[in-house]
Amino acid sequence: MKDAYRQALALRQVATEVGATLIINDRCDLALAVNADGVHLGQDDLPLTDARQILGPEAIIGLSTHNPEQVREAVALQPDYIGFGPIFGTTTKTDHDPVVGLEGLRAARALTTLPMFAIGGITSQHVSDILTAGADGMAVISAILKAADLEAAIRTFLHPPSTPARPTH
């Protein structure tokens, strides 16, 4: 618990220094403790309404979804954004939901105008296809953290080759 707090506090400091938004995964208590900008909730985490009550109206709250039914339920709850996936197979989570692919992402995009972020197995080679399928952005873990050169890996996502204009919703 102390390690998670120390790491989150260090991330809060860096995020503040560079003007980045800090979203803590799953943990409202930790987000509150380090004054994070928000929290990202999974399907089995604290309910969104409770998280909103704890963190307040200004906090950014995102919700993971994995199928059309969950997207429709999320729309009713009105998170600030939706995570959708896994788009591709991932090694980050061994117990992930079934892979939905780009077609699943397109179908989910049609269900909401909320900002939607693709999750699961994403590499820099997927950026163009994911944006074309309707995502507003993507969450990336392994493609960056497992890279030999962290900065170079981040740059490939910030400046991918031939990224299309964002679709309008």
Can you describe what's shown?
This protein has 169 residues and is of the alpha/beta class. It has a domain at 66-158: TIM Barrel. It has helices at residues 2-18, 28-33, 48-55, 68-77, 101-109, 127-132, 142-145, 150-158, and strands at residues 23-25, 38-41, 60-65, 81-84, 116-118, 137-138. It is globular and about 40 Å long. The termini are far apart.
Question: How many DSSP helices?
Answer: 8
Order of helices and strands: HEHEHEHEHEHEHH
Rg, rounded, reads 16 Å
Which CATH architecture of the domain at 66-158 is right? Alpha-Beta Barrel
State the CATH topology of the domain at 66-158: TIM Barrel
Beta content: 5-15%
As a percent range, the share of helical residues equals 40-55%
Q: Quick check: average pLDDT?
A: 91
Q: How are strands sequenced across the largest beta sheet?
A: 1-2-3-4-5-6
CATH class of the domain at 66-158: Alpha Beta
- In total, the number of strands is 6
Task: Offer a few descriptive terms.
8 helices; 6 strands; six-stranded parallel β-sheet; 13% strand; 169 residues; globular; TIM Barrel; alpha/beta
